Amino acid sequence: MKIEGEVTTGLGKAAFFLSQEFYTKEFMKNLGFIPYPGTLNVVVDDKYLDEINGIKNSCQNLIKPDEGFGAVKYIEATLNDEISGAIVFPAKTTHEENYLEFIAESKLRDELDLEDGDIVFLEF
Fold it and tell me: What average pLDDT does this structure show over 79-87?
């Protein structure tokens, strides 16, 4: 599935969660990288929601949390046909359904010179 979306500023909470050792160890073990402590937030059109929710609901990739934290589902994905990473689906989130959170090894806003409103493509 390949979808387009618009880069937007998130809530700034991902940095804390992605720096927790139990998350970083699991991402390293399962994806082969430690994610940059932050996500690239991408708002997608509602027309993609049924497919995205189907993928999320059937996803078996799960990081079980330490006490006080939420579980995270993830699927491997590619950003703009060049950056390997994953889309994460935190069990505890305040984002709307049409927000996707992409993780990668580097700070993508800097690496790709991305700003709010830029259009990106995610494939998973």
Answer: 97
Strands 2-8 and 83-90: unpaired
Query: In the 8-state DSSP scheme, what is residue 10?
Result: -
Q: How many CA atoms lie within 13 A of 8 on its CB side?
A: 14
- Sign, CA dihedral 118-71-46-30, equals positive
Contact predicate 40/79, CB 8 Å: yes
Three-state secondary structure call for residue 25: helix
Following DSSP, what letter does each residue of 26-84 receive, concatenated?
Answer: HHHHHHSSPPPSS-EEEEE-GGGHHHHHHHHHH---EEPPPTTS--EEEEEEEETTTEE
What type of residue is 32?
Answer: G
Please give the domain boundaries of the chain with CATH numbers for all domains.
Answer: 2-123 (2.40.30.30)
Q: Is the pTM of this model over 0.85?
A: yes
